[in-house]
Amino acid sequence: MSIDRVRELVESVGIEEVLHRCSERIEENKLNTFITTDFEGALTRARKRDGNGGGRLQGVPVGVKDNISTRGIQTTCGSRILTGYVPPYDACVVERLKAEGAVIIGKTNMDEFAMGTSTETSYYGSVRNPWGRERVPGGSSGGSSAAVAGGEVPIALGSDTGGSVRCPASFCGVVGLKPTYGGVSRYGLISYANSLEQIGPIATSVGDVALLFDAIGGYDRRDSTSAEHEFDTSSALDSDVGVEGMRIGVPDEYFGEGTSGAVRDSVWNAIHTFEDLGATYEIVSMPHTRYALAAYYVIAMSEASSNLARFDGLRYGYRVEEGDWHTSFSRTRREGFGEEVKRRILLGTYALSAGYHDKYYLKALKVRTLVKRDFETAFKSCDLLLAPTMPYPAFKLGEKIDDPLSLYLSDVNTVPINLAGVPAISLPCGFEDDLPIGLQLIGNFFCEPTILRAAHCFEQSTDFHKRKPGDV
Amino acid sequence: MITREDVRRVGWLSRIELEDSELDEYSRKMGLVLEYFGVLDEVGGDVDPTYHVLEIDNVFRDDVAGEMLSQGDALLNAREKRDGYFKSARIV
Known about the structure:
Chain A is of the alpha/beta class.
């Protein structure tokens, strides 16, 4: 459902009824999309705001990923170690949503500490995909994407460290944007890999994603990596400004051997749609793509080993009280963290430890330079890059979870974007066996308006976004 | 290749207690991932590392006290506190 439609509903039937319908939908769907809901609080907050309207999201229910701090609402990161933690402050993006009149109805389920591609590592149980209940919704923002696809909320926030907004958007047939690094404040986002991650909007249309991005984006002095850049997305959705003359680069390396035939065909059909709309394309080479996945995981795990050191059970969250400090600390983390989180902390600690730092961590950072240069070279001759978001549609629950490496390999087309820091959007471009396929449009630094415009033109020319999931 | 002893050592460095019975499984799965990371050895040439993608450094503000979390709010989630402080287990 669109933001406009929800606003009309709020006008006609009132906010209480709109919230009631959201709640009913979540109950009926049984997708396990939310870890915490707070309809009572949502109604109170919405009523307080009544009369102070004017916000672009006035009365619009929103789901917020559970690693984004919400004052007074439990925030767990999908982990046992933060069970019961109630943040005493709002993240910058939450303040901005509230300022626009949005109504936060709860916190969406996610892979524990955003570490995953399937939302199966959550302490609070797996999320199901509304297009096929036995399928994963993608991850790590699986709760946010499945909630939007399942009609539970019109919009949601996710976070994207290596594809965690785009992957579930692709698997759930919705639109998700990973902004330029520094484009959206990370103040109040509980860090996993701080040099890679960005908060991003998820919705059912490019227009709603653009509006949500406009609402949450922009400089914030409380995030020292926030960029002083003013985005202007106003022309992005202007139907008079199309993609005529736009130069699209198609990176050969993003159609690797694991790519399904249907994904390949759908993405090529999309390229031809852009041609019909007046754009041109050329095949480009990004030779360091082959090394991006390994470099990404080394950096992400190393940063995680440091960022997650703060979870000691002392100041918040789960705590095992046994013996001295080291015993209490080590047992709290043993019981509080799940297997994948522990594995990543251990691998990150290993990669940073004496004797291995140069071999793994420093090498990965050098590869990051080369990956970034690949993008710089490509953007000399192209306005945007186009590729599959994921090599295949949603896989089955349990299919890959016991084989971490096979799960990591799913991220091959999304992680280079985070290494480079550029923006990318995923939107529906086809189906394979009734499961959605995602198209990824990648822009240069701060070129969100370009990819939003291209995505909007594609959406206007196709019907993929109109199809609704069958299993809800 | 990562040995049981390596896993035990990084477990201690990370303050994550591991049982002896878990070490084989951790070393097997971590070994597979590290083997995959070996692909990085193929990359030659020397370039500067990228720690951060944007040209931002040394972000300062004026040394003026601003709004911040109150002591009471900061302590809200602590299991044990005393006299306005967090109470930890014995360290030494």
